[in-house]
Write a structure and sequence with these properties.
single chain, 5-stranded mixed sheet, two-stranded parallel ribbon, about 140 residues, alpha/beta
């Protein structure tokens, strides 16, 4: 019997991202009482997409935290759930809050979300952004 092997995305990274044209990362950290894993002040940057000028505050889980995608997602969703009220207040102030999923995807590879994970994301009410790199990893 020929059973096809299920291939999954690799080197995944799950992030909670807050962006805004006037976002000052040093103001977000004490407001949320959470240390970010990365920040970016507003303005042009040679590391971002052309035209990307928004300030950014983020917490990310990647292979340094856990190689397991579902553990990464649980970690980020747990933080977002604990800080739901504060995050909604930030969206009311005009900031964009997203849950972001990234990974390297080869031919026929999958990134499957479990029903409970989808429910948790939907309950938060923030957009989900999924991006894959198709480079040859």
């Amino acid at each position: 019997m020929n059973v096809a092997e299920i291939r999954h995305w690799v080197l995944t990274e799950v992030s909670l991202v807050i962006k805004g044209r006037d976002l000052q990362p040093e103001e977000i950290t004490p407001f949320l009482d959470v240390e970010p894993t990365g920040v970016r002040n507003p303005g042009p940057s040679k590391w971002d997409r052309p035209g990307e000028i928004d300030g950014q505050w983020r917490i990310s889980c990647n292979e340094r935290t856990s190689r397991d995608f579902h553990e990464q997602l649980d970690s980020i969703l747990s933080i977002a759930e604990r800080k739901r009220v504060e995050l909604r207040e930030l969206t009311a102030q005009g900031y964009e809050v997203t849950v972001s999923l990234f990974g390297f995807s080869g031919n026929d590879s999958t990134l499957a979300l479990q029903p409970e994970e989808i429910k948790r994301i939907a309950h938060l009410g923030f957009p989900l952004r999924v991006a894959a790199s198709m480079s040859g990893r």
